[in-house]
Write a structure and sequence with these properties.
Radius of gyration: 20 Å
Order of helices and strands: HHHHHHHEHEEHHHHEHHHH
Low-confidence stretches: 1-6
CATH architecture: Orthogonal Bundle
Shape: globular
Strand order of the largest sheet: 1-4
Distance between the termini: 53 Å
Helix content: over 70%
CATH class: Mainly Alpha
Number of domains: 1
Mean pLDDT: 87
Largest sheet: 2 strands, antiparallel
Structural class: mainly alpha
Length: about 325
């Protein structure tokens, strides 16, 4: 008699990961919100509105992947919003100077990656708290963006209309491709590469990781470089929608990305969290924002609700620590 064993498919493994623990709770909350809002306004779950939600969170989703990576490594990056703004300003400046779009995009993303490199080197060499360094560098990048742009709006003259206005199958915006590709790449990076495993190890216990032979400084620097590059990609998605950029455009994105990541189960402690969970956190943020708009909730109330979500996210992040004390 022969016995056969079946190996679970990769898709099945991903699905089970999404249905575990906090992710299952978040999906339940999403379903509850969707059912409740749809009962009041049947347009909420129509395809056009669902696509609109994903389009609205496309920039936030990419930045959240950068934030999640930094958190999992045991750090944090509060400069990603301003890196995104600076990258967009660089791209606009080059296009206005008559440079090809592809070259402007390449230089903009390289500039964003360089910002991440600077963050990573300072954090790694000085052993200073990433929160303080990235907060300070956020001001530096904001100042550079202001100097370059003169504090004025900078246009793109439709240079990115081929991204912003393109619809796949006449329904799905091309910007969603950027979001889904980034999420997929980050999933593979953290779950199926040596780099990802070592980043998790560093976040879990940096001293043990160093003693086991992992080049901690190098990996931490690369983490912030990847975060910078993702901020550069986010800037392209943003300008393809707005067709303009201003130095202040990145304000608040870092906190929204942090909130989405933490809601999705990525903790401040490092070494814990998943790409899938962070992505669900992004969707939840988008659904809540869209639901309040559909229900015509006062903008002041929306601000208060957003603040409440941040508090809840921090509490959820510390549940494990509270249980251990």
């Amino acid at each position: 008699m022969t016995t056969t064993t079946t190996t679970p498919s990769r898709a099945g493994t991903v699905a089970r990961g999404l249905l575990r623990g906090q992710n299952a709770l978040l999906l339940g909350v999403l379903a509850l919100i969707a059912i409740t809002v749809t009962a009041v306004n049947p347009n909420f779950l129509k395809l056009n509105n669902v696509v609109s939600i994903f389009q609205q969170v496309s920039v936030l989703g990419i930045l959240t992947m950068a934030m999640a990576l930094a958190l999992i490594s045991g750090g944090i990056d509060l400069s990603i919003g301003m890196i995104m703004a600076l990258s967009g300003v660089v791209v606009s400046t080059l296009i206005s100077a008559g440079q090809p779009v592809w070259l402007a995009v390449l230089v903009g993303i390289l500039a964003a990656t360089l910002c991440g490199l600077v963050n990573g080197v300072i954090i790694s060499l000085t052993k200073t708290m990433p929160l303080i360094i990235t907060l300070g560098m956020s001001g530096v990048y904001f100042g550079i963006a202001l100097v370059i742009s003169g504090g004025q709006f900078m246009g793109f003259d439709g240079a990115f209309d081929f991204i912003g206005r393109t619809r796949i199958a006449g329904v799905f915006p091309a910007t969603l491709i950027f979001l889904f590709v980034v999420v997929a790449l980050m999933y593979v990076l953290l779950n199926h590469t040596r780099f990802g495993r070592r980043v998790v190890a560093i976040g879990g216990n940096e001293d043990n990781a160093y003693l086991s032979g992992i080049r901690v400084n190098r990996y931490k620097t690369v983490v912030y470089m990847i975060g910078g590059a993702l901020a550069g990609v986010a800037s392209i998605v943003l300008v393809s929608r707005l067709d303009s950029i201003v130095a202040t455009v990145g304000t608040g994105y870092e906190l929204s990305a942090l909130t989405a990541a933490v809601i999705g189960g990525v903790t401040f402690e490092g070494g814990r969290g998943t790409v899938g969970g962070a992505f669900i956190g992004v969707i939840l943020m988008g659904v809540i924002s869209n639901a309040m708009t559909v229900l015509s909730v006062n903008s002041y109330v929306q601000t208060a609700v957003t603040g409440g979500i941040i508090v809840v996210a921090v509490i959820l992040s510390n549940v494990g620590k509270m249980r251990r004390t």
